[in-house]
Amino acid sequence: MQVESQVSDIAHSIQLGGPTNRLARIVDRARHLEQNQVPADVTGGAAIHRNLETLSHRARFVNWAISLCTLCALLVCTAIAVLFIGAFLSVDVSVPIIMLFIVAMAAFIAALVNFLREIDLATGTLRIGPH
Q1: Using an 8 Å Cβ cutoff, are 104 and 76 in contact?
Q2: Closest by alpha carbon to 23, among 75, 67, 71?
Q3: What are 22-52's pLDDT values in tens digits?
């Protein structure tokens, strides 16, 4: 039983690291293009500029997704704290809990939309095979 819990914890940690790894790869790719690519002609320079613009948009989407996921987690933690405080003080906290949960879910949905936008942009510019 404890092994299953440890595997679940490891899987959860990997899931949380995925978005930050995507952002790190985007930043690394942009730095590589900026530092190591010297265009031989104007067309090459324009292509690099387009790639950098795409990477900038992707980074913005991932950054928003990470920020919104963090906001969601903070709101859920706040909801849990409010539940404990409400139980300790014998106060009805149903309205604040409902509001916190709705805002947390809206943040999570917005985060997922941003991830989808970034993935769509990444796969839309993907080139596999001979050109």
Answers
A1: yes
A2: 67
A3: 888 888 888 888 887 766 666 667 888 888 9
CA–CA gap between residue 76 and residue 67 (Å, rounded)? 14
Distance CA(32)–CA(24), nearest Å, equals: 12
Instruction: Report the distance separating Cα 37 and Cα 3, nearest Å.
Output: 48
- DSSP 8-state symbol, 131: -
Contacts of 108 (CB under 8 A, 6+ apart): 68, 69, 72
Distance of alpha carbon 46 from alpha carbon 39, whole angstroms: 9
- DSSP assignment of 71-106 equals HHHHHHHHHHHHHHHHHHHT---HHHHHHHHHHHHH
pTM: predicted TM-score of the whole model, two decimal places: 0.75
Are the C-beta atoms of 64 and 114 separated by less than 8 Å?
Answer: yes
- HSE of 30, CA atoms in CB hemisphere, 13 A: 17
